[in-house]
Amino acid sequence: MDVIIEAFPDILQAFWLNIRLALYSGVLALVLGTLLAAFRVSPVPLLRLIGTVWVNTIRNTPLTLVITFMLFGLSYQLGVTFSDTISENVFWLAVVGLGVYTAAFVCEVLRAGINTVDVGQSEAARSLGFTFTQNLRLVILPQAFRAVIAPLGSTFIALIKNTTIAVVIGVTTAEGINESSGLMRTLIEFNGDQTILIFAVFALGFVIITLPIGLLTSWAAKRLGGVR
Amino acid sequence: MRTKMMAATLAAGLALSLTACGGDDDDDKFKIGIKVDQPGLGLKESDGSFSGFDVDMARYIAEGLGHDLDDVEFVEAVSANRETFLENGTVDMILATYSITDERKEKVDFAGPYYVAGQDLLVRADDDSITGPESLDGKTLCSVTGSTSAQRVKDEYSDKVQLQEFDSYSKCVDALLGGQIDALTTDDIILAGFAQQHPGELKVVGSPFSEENYGVGLPKDSEDRDKINDLIEEAFEDGAWEKAFNDNLGDSGYPLPETPPTVDRY
C-alpha cells in the first residue's frame, strides 16, 4: 500500500493527463464526426465518398498504429509539429490521432441516429423550401443527437480508455509524469511484488472516471431521448 | 443448438489449454530467464533461436552445471517479473541484464557479477557535441517507459534536456538514426548492442555515470550458487567470457573492459 500512497500525487496527475487527452480529442471527434456524418448523408457523391473512405480506413486501423503514425509519420516525416517542447508536441499529436480515430465512430453512431428520424420529417422540411444544410442543422441532427446520447456516451467511455495508448509515443506531463498506463508500468517495474495491487488501483481509477459518464448519459438519454 | 456449439467450443478450448499446460510442465528442462528484445545481449531471432552475450554466458553456465544444451529452455523474463519468476520456480536461473542490488538480494540470490555495466549515452557516430550526461542541455534524450534513467540525467546533470519516452528501445534507435532525438540512455552494454546493429552509424559515448553489477539471478538459498560463481571465474580465465563479448558486441566500437569483475561471494 505504501507504494500507492507515495505515488498518489503522481497517479492523480497521470489520470488528469488522460482526462485532458479525452476532453480535447472528444471535442475534436464530435466536430469531425458530425461533419463526416453530414458528408455521408449528403447529396454530393464526392462528399459521400470522402466520408465512406475516412470511416472505413480509420475505423479498421488499430489505434496503436494511428498514434504511432502521428509521431513517426506526420511529425517526423512530414514535419508537422505543434510545439518545440516535446511533451506538448506529443500531447497534441495524440489528441489529433485520438480525435481522428474516434470521429469515425461518432460518425457511424450519428448516422444510425439520422436513420431513426422519420423520413417524413425531412420531406416536410424540403417541401417548406429548406436547403440540405438547413434541413440537417434544424430538423434532422437535433433529433438524431437526442436518439444517440447513450451510444455517444459509450464512445466517449471507449475514448477515455483509449487515451492510454498515447503511451506508445510517450505522452507525459511537463514534469515527465506518464499518463496512467505508463505510470502503472513504471510502478510495476520497481515494485514487481505488488503488481496486482497496482493493477487494481489503476483499474479502479478508470471505473471512477467512466462510471459517472455512463450513468449521466443513460439519465440524459431517458430525459431527452423523446418518446418513440 | 447454440448452447451445444458453445459447449463444444469451450470443451475444445479447455482440452487445448490442458495439453498446452502439459507440454510446458516439463521438469527435465533447465529453464533460463533472458531478455528477448535486446540485441547483443538477449535476443530472440526470427527463426526462434536465441543469441547474445547473456545467452552465451547462460549456455556456458548451464553446460558447466552438467545440463545438456538440448535440455536448456530459454524463457522471456521482462524486468518487472524477474524476482517473481525465481520465487515461483518459473525459471531456474536468470541472466537478463540483472543488476545486483541489496533490495533484490532480500528476495533472490545472486552469483557473479559477470559484468559491470554503467548508465551511458548512445549518440550518432558523427555527433561530437555530446560527451557525457552534463552536455545534454538543449538536446533531446530518449528512454523507455518504465525506466527512470532519463529522468535521472535531467535531475542530476542537465536540467534543460528534453525527454522523449517510447515503449521500446527500437523506436528510440529509429528516432536517433532519423535525427529527431540526439541521444538514448540506458546501460552501456545494452547501448553497445544497438551500436553493433548499426555499425558506423551509432556510438556509445563511453563515460558511464553509474555502476550496475550484472549477476546471475537464482532462487533464494540455491545450492548451485557456489558452483556458478566458480564457473563465472572459469569463464573469465579460459577466454569464454571474452569470446561471448566479442561474438556479440565486437563490432560495436565499445571496448571490452580490460579486467573482468571480481565475483562477490557474499
Automatic annotation (TrEMBL), chain A:
Localization recorded for this chain is: Cell membrane
Q: How does it sit in the membrane?
A: Multi-pass membrane protein
Any one Pfam family here would be BPD_transp_1
The reply on keyword ATP-binding is no
A Gene Ontology CC term for this entry?
Answer: ATP-binding cassette (ABC) transporter complex
Please give the InterPro entries that the UniProt record associates with this protein.
AA_ABC_transptr_permease_3TM, ArtM/GltK/GlnP/TcyL/YhdX-like, MetI-like, MetI-like_sf
Q: Which residues form the ABC transmembrane type-1 domain?
A: 15-217
Taxonomy, superkingdom? Bacteria
Q: Name one GO biological process term.
A: amino acid transport
UniProt entry keywords in alphabetical sequence: Amino-acid transport, Cell membrane, Membrane, Transmembrane, Transmembrane helix, Transport
Instruction: Show the stretches that span the lipid bilayer.
Output: 21-41, 61-78, 90-114, 196-221
Among its keywords, does the record have Iron-sulfur?
no
Per UniProt, what is one GO molecular function of this protein?
transmembrane transporter activity
Q: Give the protein family.
A: Belongs to the binding-protein-dependent transport system permease family. HisMQ subfamily.
Q: PANTHER family recorded for this chain? A: AMINO-ACID ABC TRANSPORTER PERMEASE PROTEIN YHDX-RELATED, MEMBRANE COMPONENT OF AMINO ACID ABC TRANSPORTER
Q: From the Swiss-Prot or TrEMBL record, give the protein name.
A: Amino acid ABC transporter permease
Q: Which lineage do the record's taxonomy fields give for this organism?
A: Bacteria, Bacillati, Actinomycetota, Actinomycetes, Propionibacteriales
UniProtKB/TrEMBL annotation, chain B:
Which chain regions cross the lipid bilayer? none
Q: Name one GO biological process term.
A: amino acid transport
**Is Transport tagged as a keyword?**
yes
**Which controlled-vocabulary keywords does the entry list?**
Signal, Transport
The record ties this protein, via Pfam families, to: SBP_bac_3
What the entry lists under SMART domains is as follows: PBPb
User: Region entry Disordered: which residue ranges?
Assistant: 247-266
Family statement: Belongs to the bacterial solute-binding protein 3 family.
Protein name, UniProt field? Glutamate ABC transporter substrate-binding protein
Give the organism, scientific name: Nocardioides caeni
**What does UniProt list as this organism's lineage?**
Bacteria, Bacillati, Actinomycetota, Actinomycetes, Propionibacteriales
